[in-house]
Amino acid sequence: MADASERLARLLGLVPYLTRNPGTGIATTANVFGITPAQLIDDLELLFVSGRPGHMPDDLIEANWEGDRIYVANADEVSVPVRLSSREARALLIALDYLAEVDDVEPATIARVRAKVSAAAALSPAGGAVDVRVPERPAALQAALAQARARGEGLALDYYVAARDELTHRLVTPKRLRLAGAWYLDAWCHTSGGPRTFAVSAIRGFASAPVPEVPAGAAAGAGGPRDEGLGVALTFAPEAAWLADELETTAVDYDAAGPGTVRAQLRVHSREWLTRLLLAHGRHVLAVEPPGLAADAARIAAQAAGRVD
Questions:
Q1: CATH, domain 230-304, list 1.10.357, 3.10.450, 1.10.287, 3.30.70
Q2: Concatenated DSSP letters for 170-226?
Q3: How far apart are CA 110 and CA 97, in angstroms?
Q4: pLDDT digits 0-9 by tens, 23-59
Q5: What is the pLDDT, as a whole number, of residue 82?
Q6: Which residue in 25, 24, 30 sits closest to 43, CA to CA?
Q7: What backbone phi and psi angles, to 5 degrees, belong to 77?
Q8: Which residues pair with 174 in a beta bridge?
Q9: What is the DSSP letter of 21?
Q10: Least crowded by CB within 10 Å, which of 23, 79, 99, 200?
């Protein structure tokens, strides 16, 4: 269904484009619409059976592309570019308002683009207004990052790890602040010896501090060479489904093992951390993949219960 909808939208844009640009080459047109020449030919062949109800020869769109040049005719009804729907326009307005909140964009630029989108979709100013609320930018931390970079220093963080109920102390070389539903700090952690992502909400304190050089060939944060860790999948019972929101997951599947269950995929850089997680929440963990990763937690739990010789 998605492919059919995308193709219909492309055809509705293709005819006005070719009507306004007669004789455009096949390769050029395919590049404009982000498709291959073979896909474009397939679309043009579909136009032969498209047109007004009745499907008589005079009702159908004419398309000719001999000699690598494309011409269309008898397409007056669809020769006008498709307008943005109200829903599409509002989605763009939301994106603009979101961008204004999270990036340093000139307000005047946002206002101009906003007005053009509203006009294109015939939205009234009131009707186009959308209240977008994003997590407040951590201005103090952002200022500390800028100051640390100016001094050639890093940051000393007091970072709370909820999984261990522990306040840790980290020395990091920051890379960037990133918004992904909540604010995160990507950095090279000298304390852990690798790239890490820190939830800003869990940072209890920070200060500029001298840091050693980031190891050669390593990157300060996501996007560069890094220890990818071990891929793990944990399936949680409904009582522990909230853990999928607390962990740094790479994929989440809901109702994977029944209503309310959650299968969370993540990268684990410490077997000890995984063991502690399983010991704390094991009664609500329905499955661990690979299965052998649960062995350490099971052994420690058995020892604690006095069942191991």
A1: 3.30.70
A2: EEEEEEEEEESSSEEEEEEETTTTEEEEEEGGGEEEEEEE--PPPPTT--SSTTSS-
A3: 8
A4: 888 889 888 888 898 888 888 888 755 655 555 555 5
A5: 58
A6: 30
A7: -65, -25
A8: 187
A9: S
A10: 23
Stated pTM of the model: 0.44
What does pLDDT average to over the chain? 78
The string of pLDDT tens digits covering residues 112-160 is: 888 888 777 666 555 445 555 667 778 899 889 888 888 889 999 999 8
230-304: same fold as 2-78?
Answer: no
**Which structure tokens are listed for 6?**
């995308």
The domain limits of the chain are 2-78, 86-128, 139-209, 230-304
**What is the rounded (10 degree) CA torsion for 281, 284, 289, 294?**
50
Helix, coil or strand: residue 138: coil
The class that CATH gives domain 2-78 is mainly alpha
- Reply yes or no: is the peptide bond before residue 212 cis, omega within 30 of 0: no
83: left (phi over 0), alpha (psi -120 to 50) or beta: beta
154/105: higher pLDDT: 154
